[in-house]
Specification:
This protein is α/β, with parallel strands linked by helices. The protein folds into two domains: 133 residues; 151 residues, Rossmann fold (3-Layer(aba) Sandwich). It has twelve helices and eleven strands. Helix 3 packs antiparallel against helix 4 and helix 11 packs across helix 12. The longest helix has 18 residues.
Length: 299
């Protein structure tokens, strides 16, 4: 089986599922989620429950051996060479793959059918071969809640453009802010100007984890809906609604990355911030598909 250790929020967990799904399909084995990292994170929890995925949660105690310091050290020391992998196989332990950089690692595709993946794996190159399957996996198996369904009707009836504004932890958490930085209203204004020069009658739908701030500062100057929390609607519904917009203006967030990636419009214009990370040690080289337009953040 392929085991993926989930971490982060919804968008990050979608990346981790996608790489695990691609490898599990290639090896003909099942995909299992390890939730141990989420159990130790007070700010995050399992976020993929709205989807009907081809994976299961690890059963209680099933992965206990993998969490022992001795077994983990053995996997770390032995996974990189044939003799070590043979030892792990004899002991019933998986090959451990820990992501070492934010760029695509082609060796992931060659991992055996009993592997543990730890990392974020933020590149479509890991799973572009199963893009159609993932679009099915990441579709909601139930109807939208009534308020979201009304929004979806409006989105489908116009030249809709989603704008995603990520705030909260990017502003309040110093470590997260140092890694990502925060996009300015001027950046969004520039993106609106770019798209409005190409689209005759755009209508904007602003999604944000800080809707009050977004409504005050993000003013496209065209018909605009600032999307508010709705009874019974989850973050997943917001992501689905964003993906149904014809065009997308992204935040530097995996949440809006997936909304744009799942957008079925073959003529979609996707504007992504060129500087995805503020931390110069991190690279977004393989994160943004070449078909998306990268807009300088100083604009």
């Amino acid at each position: 089986m392929i085991v993926v250790r989930l971490q982060g929020g919804l968008g990050n967990q979608m990346f981790q599922y996608a790489v695990g799904r691609a490898l599990a399909l290639a090896r003909g084995v099942e995909l299992v989620f390890d939730l141990s990292a989420l159990a130790e994170d007070p700010l995050r929890s399992y976020a993929l429950g709205d989807f009907q995925l081809a994976a299961r949660l690890a059963r209680p105690g099933e992965l206990a051996r993998l969490r022992s310091p001795l077994a983990y050290r053995l996997m770390r020391l032995s996974s990189g060479n044939p003799a070590g992998r043979a030892l792990l196989r004899a002991l019933g332990l998986p090959v451990l793959y820990e992501e070492r950089a934010s760029t695509h690692a082609p060796e992931v595709a060659y991992l055996p059918g009993h592997s543990l993946l730890v990392g974020f794996f933020q590149s479509e190159r890991y799973f572009e071969s199963i893009a159609g399957q993932l679009r099915q996996d990441f579709s909601l198996p139930r109807p939208l809640t009534p308020a979201s369904a009304l929004l979806a009707e409006r989105i489908n009836a116009c030249e809709s453009v989603s704008i995603h504004v990520r705030r909260t932890d990017y502003v309040d958490n110093p470590e997260t802010c140092a890694m990502h930085g925060v996009l300015t209203p001027a950046h969004y204004t520039h993106c609106v100007e770019l798209l409005s020069g190409r689209i005759a009658t755009p209508e904007f739908f602003v999604f944000s984890d800080d809707p009050d701030w977004a409504e005050e500062h993000i003013r496209p100057g065209f018909p605009t809906t600032w999307v508010r929390p709705r009874p019974g609607a989850s973050d997943t519904e917001d992501l689905v609604l964003m993906s149904r917009c014809r065009h997308n203006i992204l935040a530097n967030s995996s949440f809006s990355w997936w909304a744009a990636w799942l957008n079925p419009n073959p003529e979609a214009q996707v504007l992504a911030p060129k500087r995805w990370y503020q931390d110069p040690a991190r690279s977004a080289e393989d994160l943004l598909p070449q078909r998306w337009e990268q807009v300088p953040c100083g604009s």
